[in-house]
Amino acid sequence: QVQLVESGGGLVQPGGSLRLSCAVSGSSLDHYSIGWFRQAPGKKREGVSCIHSSSGTTYYADSVKGRFTISRDNAKNTVYLQMNSLKPEDTAVYYCAASDLEARLIATLNLLYFGPWGQGTQVTVSS
């Protein structure tokens, strides 16, 4: 069973940066695509970015393009989300999730195509 654990969240000022980590156990990143999602208070969970298992192709939501970068270290079985130029509207609990579905599905960043999930890490952007 694949398990995911997020870390790296915290409090950062607007314009600052954070790097989130998603440590994966139970399987290698060659077999599972990993997505990052977020849920702000009172809002639905939304897709942020994902990286495909075999091709390494990356996908981003329009709201984070040019500011966030997803990457992975196969040796450490860990996926990262580098977040730059953070805005108050980026405040949310960030989750990572795994998927073994094809690229055309995970590229949509639809929550239905991902699971299992990690427990989440809080990111707060505030001055």
Describe this structure in words.
The strands form two sheets. This protein has a six-stranded mixed sheet, with no helix packed on it. Strands 1-3-8-7 form a four-stranded antiparallel sheet, with no helix packed on it. It contains one helix and ten strands; from the N terminus they run βββββββββαβ. The protein starts with a strand and ends with a strand. The protein has 127 residues and is mainly beta. It has one helix at 103-106; strands at residues 3-7, 10-12, 18-25, 33-39, 46-51, 58-60, 68-73, 78-83, 92-99, 121-125. A hairpin with a 6-residue loop joins strand 4 and strand 5 (46-51).
Per-chain topology:
Layout (H helix, E strand, L loop, with lengths): L2 E5 L2 E3 L5 E8 L7 E7 L6 E6 L6 E3 L7 E6 L4 E6 L8 E8 L3 H4 L14 E5 L2
What is the residue-mean pLDDT, rounded to a whole number?
96
Number of strands: 10
Spatial strand arrangement across the major sheet: 2-10-9-4-5-6
State the separation between the terminal residues, measured CA to CA: 40 Å
Helix content: under 10%
Approximate strand percentage? 35-45%
Sequence of secondary-structure elements: EEEEEEEEEHE
Shape: globular
- Number of alpha- plus pi-helical segments: 1
Radius of gyration: 13 Å
Poorly predicted segments: none
Structural class by SSE content: mainly beta
Main pleated sheet: 6 strands, mixed
- Quaternary state, please? single chain
